[in-house]
Every structure is written in C-alpha cells, then in structure tokens.
Amino acid sequence: QVQLVESGGGLVQAGGSLRVTCVASGRAFSRYAMAWFRQAPGKEREFVAAIGRSGGSGFYEDSVKGRLTISRDNAKKTVYLQMNSLKPEDTAVYYCAATLGALVQTPVSYDYWGQGTQVTVSP
User: Fold this and answer.
1) 39, CA 20 to 30 Å: which among 2, 22, 95, 114?
2) What is the pLDDT of residues 11-34, one digit of tens each?
C-alpha cells in the first residue's frame, strides 16, 4: 500500500505559477505510475497529467500541455506538478493518484488517492 499527501495549493493570479507536491509513504514507490487529477465544483474529476515509474516526460490533458509539467523523484517518494501560466479555469482541487497498473487517464484505474489540495486562480 501507499499513502499520498498533497500540499502546495493556494491562491494565485491568472498568469502566475504554483507547484503542488505529493509525498508518498509506504513501500516501493517506484513500482507505481503516478498521476494528477483535478475536480472543479459541480464537475467530474478529470485527468491532468501522468508519469511512468521511472520518470520521463509524462503525458498531459490537451488543455494543460505546455503549461503544466509533471515530474517525480523516486528517492524522495515525491511527485510534482509545476503549473505555469495559470488560468481561472484551472481552479480545482488537485489530487495525486497511484496505480500498479498501466498508465491511463481514467480515475477508476488508480488504486490510491490523496486528500487533495485546493488551487484557486483569480482573474
């Protein structure tokens, strides 16, 4: 099992930057593919970005490409989401998720979730 704790959310103006962090506890963090999802009020949880077990470039939802970057540090059991050029429509609770399975975009495929961190982007 793995436990996930997100941090780093907050309030930022449009065009600004923020980095959210997810720290894992438990064994064998490097066995898990990791992803970020987000959920805005009244909307379904949606995929943002994912990264493979050994790192690499990751893949992204189309609306965040070129603005958000996912990365991981297996030695620190941590995954990051660097968010630049933020827009009001990026406002949501951001969740970290882990899976032992394939790297996919569907929330149901992920086995473990953090509690979420709120990101609010003002106009």
Assistant:
1) 2
2) 999 999 999 999 999 889 999 999
